Amino acid sequence: xxxxxxxxxxxxxxxxxxxxxxxxxxxxxxxxxxxxxxxxxxxxxxxxxxxxxxxxxxxxxxxxxxxxxxxxxxxxxxxxxxxxxxxxxxxxxxxxxxxxxxxxxxxxxxxxxxxxxxxxxxxxxxxxxxxxxxxxxxxxxxxxxxxxxxxxxxxxxxxxxxxxxxxxxxxxxxxxxxxxxxxxxxxxxxxxxxxxxxxxxxxxxxxxxxxxxxxxxxxxxxxxxxxxxxxxxxxxxxxxxxxxxxxxxxxxxxxxxxxxxxxxxxxxxxxxxxxxxxxxxxxxxxxxxxxxxxxxx
Length: 297
Known about the structure:
Layout lengths: L3 H12 L2 H8 L3 H15 L4 E4 L2 E4 L1 H28 L3 E7 L1 H6 L1 H11 L3 E7 L2 H9 L5 E5 L8 E15 L12 H5 L3 E3 L5 H12 L9 E4 L3 H9 L5 E4 L4 H6 L2 E3 L7 E9 L5 H14 L4
Parallel strand pairs: 3-4, 3-5, 7-8
Antiparallel strand pairs: 1-2, 5-11, 6-9, 6-10, 6-11
């Protein structure tokens, strides 16, 4: 277990206040101050400076916070691994980005559970940024993500490729055209994914590479829920750049139409990503199963 004085210090850093930290930890403010003084004496450095009524972390304080977070991540991982060692039912956490979590991962999880009944895989769905934060903090054992990431920092393997398309209501005038220009599409109301989304990052980078700045995109709404985006598209309130896998049902039923854009073709990978200290046996079992059975589910 991590020393409570370190937890107190991290809480001060996160709240920016001795008073708020004391309230959260159910301590008196003098007790919080005393714990910080102990750490400063122990490490022989100044960790916090008071500037009027505000506080500021020193460089040493910031460094200590980083180490405490790593300790917390290690403790979470250690606790889970020790529990699984003696447990009849092994439990692991899979982090999935929103498109994958809604339209790809559920069938994979169902198929895996049938074959490995003594293993529970709990899925947590978030955008790409939050999923990587959880992976870094070891709140999850494995991630299944879309969008760019630093492949030198993580172990990874490709599950499958996906295509981004321009999805419009079947009632939109552009749907009757065999092909349109990207410039024509960008004149319409764009329903964009939220900041931190892998889909959004890919599209922003692509549009910027084509010379279109943010002022050219005509963003009508920013929404993190893919089901809501599809509903708005069906009501002809805007269009979106979205995973082809996410709209295949609506395209088949005719409520959403994929508008072909001249010289527009964006492929991206769905990747399994994990840290070098991940639970190797589970990761190999799960990733091998998903890659082998993805076409049959």
